[in-house]
Amino acid sequence: MSTVASDEEMWLDGSAGRLVRPYTVSNGRTSPTKQLDLLSLVRSTGNVAHAQLDPEHAQTLDLCHGPTSVAEVAAHMRLPAVVAKVLLSDLVDCGAVTTQAPKPASDPTNRHVLEALLDGLQRRL
Predict the structure, then answer these.
(1) Exposed (0-12), middle (13-18) or buried (19+): which is 16, by Cβ within 10 Å?
(2) Considering only CA atoms, which of 34, 92, 99, 94 is closest in space to residue 69?
(3) Residue 7: DSSP 8-state
(4) Could you tell me if 81 and 23 are in contact, meaning their C-beta atoms sit under 8 angstroms apart?
(5) Over the stretch 74-95, which tens digit does the pLDDT of each residue have?
(6) CA distance 42 to 64
(7) How far apart are CA 91 and CA 1, in angstroms?
(8) How far is CA 79 from CA 54, 66, 85, 107, 112, in A?
(9) Which of 11, 36, 57, 106 has the fewest CB atoms in 10 Å of its CB?
């Protein structure tokens, strides 16, 4: 039996919840330096070693080996999305990850799409 607590056990308590407030993870910052959408994809570049990062950033980077959405990173880290965005924007700033904005499913000015949307909404009402 190991006496060393995992990262998860160290930061979470079953009955009390998170032992460290989410905004302490981002040093109190609530504004990311890069604009990231919840559907933006992030991916590790492999250019920054974990030893160069603090534990929160290293843990975030571990989730970005393949294309991963900002929402997925936040969910896996059990953090509010804005805190995950701050951590990810820090990783973008230091060259550890790249981002790709989500692509729209269709042209928002396409008349046929707008009419189909309107028809669908009218049927549901």
Answers:
(1) exposed
(2) 99
(3) H
(4) no
(5) 999 888 898 899 999 999 999 9
(6) 6
(7) 35
(8) 16, 20, 10, 33, 39
(9) 106
Is the distance from CB of 84 to CB of 76 less than 8 angstroms?
no
Residue 5 gets which letter from DSSP?
A: P
Nearest to 43 by CA among 67, 11, 75: 67
Q: What is the DSSP letter of 4?
A: S
Rounded distance between C-alpha atoms, residue 70 and residue 49, angstroms: 21
Q: State the residue for tokens 């009419």.
A: 115
Give the number of other Cβ atoms within 10 Å of residue 48's Cβ. 17
Output the furthest CA–CA distance in the chain (Å, rounded): 64
Model pLDDT for residues 28-73, shown as the tens digit of each residue: 677 788 889 999 999 999 999 888 898 889 999 999 999 999 999 9
